[in-house]
From TrEMBL:
<feature type="DNA-binding region" description="H-T-H motif">
    <location>
        <begin position="43"/>
        <end position="62"/>
    </location>
</feature>
<dbReference type="InterPro" id="IPR001647">
    <property type="entry name" value="HTH_TetR"/>
</dbReference>
<dbReference type="InterPro" id="IPR009057">
    <property type="entry name" value="Homeodomain-like_sf"/>
</dbReference>
<protein>
    <submittedName>
        <fullName>TetR/AcrR family transcriptional regulator</fullName>
    </submittedName>
</protein>
<dbReference type="InterPro" id="IPR036271">
    <property type="entry name" value="Tet_transcr_reg_TetR-rel_C_sf"/>
</dbReference>
<feature type="domain" description="HTH tetR-type">
    <location>
        <begin position="20"/>
        <end position="80"/>
    </location>
</feature>
<keyword id="KW-0238">DNA-binding</keyword>
<dbReference type="InterPro" id="IPR050109">
    <property type="entry name" value="HTH-type_TetR-like_transc_reg"/>
</dbReference>
<dbReference type="Pfam" id="PF00440">
    <property type="entry name" value="TetR_N"/>
</dbReference>
């Protein structure tokens, strides 16, 4: 990681956030330790030591360790959110036209695969802390509803009208698609990391199984 990488991740609503050298070091150190040990098991003194700054410097930038966590996690909400919620992502994936639902799901999976591959340490932090911080969960619900849900529903309903996928509630199709994509990413990057992966072959097989489950009878 480096300062440029952090600034890219910390760009909220396309507004550039400038980091001081010490702030970049603090965030980089926190991301590294949080992703390895988890938030609760990490002390600010450990972060300060790894960053090469005095512990008091952390609290000049972030009032509490929780504020430091949210400084890392909040931008992630606008970039990935498990994993559907970035404006750039919505533009690239949800605002295109597709010849089939299968083609849409492949674009969705491939886009998030590349993102997770690039930003794995912070994705780990996000997933580790999701269950323990209500403010993170509530932000997910708001961002998903405002940025993704209606666009996702329109795509699903379009291919239902064409007879390509089953006539079941669109929310059911969305949930099944999301859990399939997220399950692949979790297995690939966090659970079965030592497996002999042929990533694109596995993506194609995963989507094939999803489509057979959704195919209209």
């Amino acid at each position: 990681m480096n300062e440029r990488w952090l600034e890219e991740l910390l760009r909220i609503n396309d507004e550039e956030i400038k980091l001081s050298e010490k702030q970049a070091k603090i965030l980089e150190a926190a991301i590294g330790i949080f992703s390895q040990k988890g938030y609760a098991a990490t002390s600010t003194s450990e972060i300060a030591k790894k960053a090469g700054v005095a512990e008091g410097t952390i609290f000049r930038h972030y009032k509490t360790k929780k504020d430091l966590l949210l400084a890392i996690v909040t931008p992630t909400l606008t970039k990935v959110v498990a994993p559907f919620l970035t404006k750039d992502f919505v533009k690239k994936v949800f605002e295109n036209e597709y010849g089939s639902y299968e083609e849409f799901v492949y674009a969705l999976m491939e886009n998030r695969y590349e993102f997770v591959k690039k930003h794995l340490p912070i994705i780990k932090i996000f997933l580790q802390e999701l269950a323990f911080h209500d403010e993170i969960k509530s932000q997910i619900q708001v961002i998903f509803t405002e940025n993704v849900l209606e666009k996702f529903k329109r795509i699903v309903e379009h291919f239902q009208e064409n007879g390509e996928i089953a006539d079941v509630p669109s929310g059911t199709v969305i949930r099944m698609t999301m859990t399939t994509v997220i399950g692949f990413l979790l297995a690939r990057f966090m659970i079965m990391t030592d497996a002999d992966w042929d990533d694109h072959k596995e993506m194609n097989a995963t989507i094939y199984l999803l489509m057979n489950g959704l195919a209209a009878k």
